[in-house]
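Hey, resending since the last one bounced:
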Amino acid sequence: MAAIIGAFVSLLGACFFLFSGIGLLRMPDAFNRMQAGTKATTLGSILFLLGIGIMKPDYLGRTIILAIFIALTNPVSSNALARAAHAYRKRLGATLACDALADDQEADHGN
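The structure tokens again:
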């Protein structure tokens, strides 16, 4: 029974990986693609690892450690990529409809 539940949870995680891939293809710009990729792969990875842990209880501790690591590092890496994309877009001269980061940076430099 645990193998069936673990396989179902892993399959659910794999579905989130599929949704992430679809989001990467369908989103219009780099910022939306990063959000689709980061959020879906974080949840997909955690569910996939949890499913493995359920199927193989002796691996559960390791998979929980990996899931915690993924939950902590994916948002940090996404933030770094978003800042890099923002700086690159600025060099190209492209403008965003609402650019709160640039407004904050101008306010910091003005003081």
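The chain has a mean pLDDT of 84.

Sorry for the duplicate.
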